[in-house]
Amino acid sequence: GDSVTQMEGPVTLSEEAFLTINCTYTATGYPSLFWYVQYPGEGLQLLLKATKADDKGSNKGFEATYRKETTSFHLEKGSVQVSDSAVYFCAANNAGNMLTFGGGTRLMVKP
Amino acid sequence: DVKVTQSSRYLVKRTGEKVFLECVQDMDHENMFWYRQDPGLGLRLIYFSYDVKMKEKGDIPEGYSVSREKKERFSLILESASTNQTSMYLCASHRGSSYNSPLHFGNGTRLTVT
Known about the structure:
Chain A contains no helices and twelve strands. Chain A is mostly beta strands. In chain A, a hairpin with a 5-residue loop joins strand 10 and strand 11. The radius of gyration of chain A is 13 Å and the shape is globular. By secondary structure, chain B is mainly beta. Chain B has strands spanning 4-6, 10-13, 19-21, 23-25, 31-38, 42-49, 56-57, 64-70, 73-78, 87-94, 104-105, 109-113. In chain B, strands 2, 5, 6, 7, 10, 11 and 12 form a seven-stranded mixed β-sheet that branches. In chain B, strands 3-9-8 form a three-stranded antiparallel β-sheet, with no helix packed on it. Chain B is globular and about 35 Å long. Chain B starts with a strand and ends with a strand. At the A-B interface, strand 5 and strand 6 of A face strand 6 and strand 10 of B.
């Protein structure tokens, strides 16, 4: 079946540092790919998505590029802020409207 | 804005009790989902529903059942709660017409079974 693997956390960074959270997937065909973010005490919300190879999703300074050749969708941000502290989930959506989530990566940004 | 509302933020129940977790969405979404979230395990799908009175098992349905009598409401039922069902439960909804449309989540219910 489909699976999504992302780097384990927590990831601890200082403010204004560069962020990368790795995500790779295995799937039949070409899924749509998503990053969701969960702020403390809240449910998940969509951060960005990409629906086909070489697409770049972006939002709030975060970016991720759909790399078919490496089956990856790594999340990046050039300069993180304390307010970016959250848990980040990578997900893949294949046929049938079913999302497969990665295990989540907790990001902690220190001032 | 889509709103998915879960009726309780925190619940404490005793082993063996019957537990109802309620979820309501206000955007006429066809699809609704129940997940549980546990540290290190991410989100695991319990049950989902494509339409009123329809339900499908997810990856971990054992010990749970669901009810969808109205389109906007999807209930998760623990027939006889056990301590290993202590978890964060997340409800989500999704417009069924496009598989690229995002899931919309509620804020979660943290259930503790003692």
